[in-house]
Write a structure and sequence with these properties.
It is built from eight helices and ten strands. By secondary structure, it is α/β, with parallel strands linked by helices. The strands form two sheets. The protein has an eight-stranded mixed beta sheet. A two-stranded antiparallel sheet has the order 1-4. Strand 6, helix 3 and strand 7 form a beta-alpha-beta unit. Helix 1 packs across helix 2. It is globular and about 45 Å long.
Length: about 240
Amino acid sequence: MKLVLAAMEPGGGPEIFAALQGEGASAGRPVAFVRLSRCNLACVWCDTPYTWHFEGDERPHESGEEWPRKPNQVTLDVADVAERILSLGQDRLVITGGEPLLQGAALAELVALLPDMTVEIETNGTTTAPPPLDIRIDQYNVSPKLAHSGNPRELALVAERLDAYATDPRAFFKFVIQREEDLDEVLALKERYRFPNERTFLMPEGTSSDMLRWRATWLEQLCLKHGLRFSDRLHIHIHGDTRGT
């Protein structure tokens, strides 16, 4: 089976790389990353639009840029992807996107070839992993999209899926925050789905250290007031808004 991956510039190779996990419960851990292409949502501030906002896609993105599909997608055999991951020498794998679970069947084959690796999936929480994949996932990093993402609520917040993740001890919840008022929506979702405080993160939206630090100054106080966890974006501070990091 094959996987559709995002490609890195300028060589066009697949976005498979070693880095520190930059966000959420595993922040700071050395990991292998695999970034897949395609997404069923369209966040207007998405920092990886090259995974989905291709030429002809009418969904909005704040940059106004459309990405040519051919140099930004690469299709590889699952065995090839596994070999590239193993060559990185890491014991933890983060599968990100786009929305990785759109390729769940191929991912099940991939992780079967990596039996000794701890596996994280980063997902928007709108879909589910097929059973052969689910049994191999050690951690779900679920990022439900708030209204400021620009996605219709009925597409971004699927009650059946959020109910399931809320009762799964492997799931951690990460909310992207632009304004203090966004917390009202987070608290309403927490009450509805009973997301545990110890597994709920608030993360500033931004692709520059200056913006992240400014938002962190008031986001810290919201975390303290409501007993929630804070997530930074370490990769932005270290590398800037660049691919393969």
